[in-house]
Amino acid sequence: SNKCSFNEQKRLLLLMSLKQSELNSFLWTIKRDPPSYFYGTIHVPYTRVWDFIPENSKQAFQESSIVCFELDLTDPYTISALSSCQLLPQGENLQDLLPRDIYRRLKTHLEYVKLMLPSWMTPDQRGKGLYADYLFNAIAGNWERKRPVWVMLMVNSLTEADIKTRGAPVLDLYLAQEAQRMRKRTGAVEKVEEQCHPLNGLNFSQVIFALNQTLLQQESLRAGGLQVPYTTEHLIKHYNCGDLNSIIFNHDTSQVPNFKNATLPASEQVTAQEIEHYFRQELIYKRNERMGRRVRALLEEQPDKSFFFAFGAETGLMSEKHTQSSYRHIFCFI
Q1: pTM of the predicted model as reported, rounded to 2 decimal places
Q2: N or C, which end of the chain has less CB nearby within 10 Å?
């Protein structure tokens, strides 16, 4: 069975050495000479998943001459551009922009997170010299200068479960570092602006609605009145078990919270649906077509090279719910 409990993951490690070829992995092969590959990554510390990645995926990575990612996370410009994209125009401040009540609740919640963060951290994180103040500043520093949509995403990621995963390179970055260490050619199929601008494209009332709903969820969690349907731990478990059919991987826009809620008034239901539709169009369908065209161009331009494309499995292109439509743009010519 693809689905396995946390206890079964230890047994899975043993099986991997015996029945590697029988295990599921997030690896697709483009059958040409030489072959090229798609691999579905996950944006969590590589240490949480590396031992569970089947050998065929690691071998495909080693044998490929060019490794391509969504973005080049080893490029200082990429990191700088991502940070700049999140900032408000010069001279603007979040306090002047947000409704007073939402700003007050946001500040209160961040103070709560900062207070709780030392108790959320793991002994392993402390053993590696990771300090709570440093971690908080790395995630939430300069929050008053950020655009509201990025503050919403930040708040959504400042949970105990997510904090416990911090401290090691995410799988995408680790693969990029390994590719550099092995002197492979690396590349990216997206520009920073293409990932950033769609998020900045929501109108102000939609962003305020999204931020308010995110704060309501976090406030309910703090009060013990809400159970999160899935966490980063669930995502890691299903990824390690090779479970593409999980509801987690079928959550269309897992980069952003799900705002659809049957208890919302009719007008707010409409806003939630508009936001979901916008993100699905911008972060999945349009993005898939754009990435597909660029992958196709790379393969056609360099038919004698073996590519390893590493894209997020839990978002967009690799979601099984969209696999057929996503790959139609890529595989139709092979």
Answers
A1: 0.81
A2: N
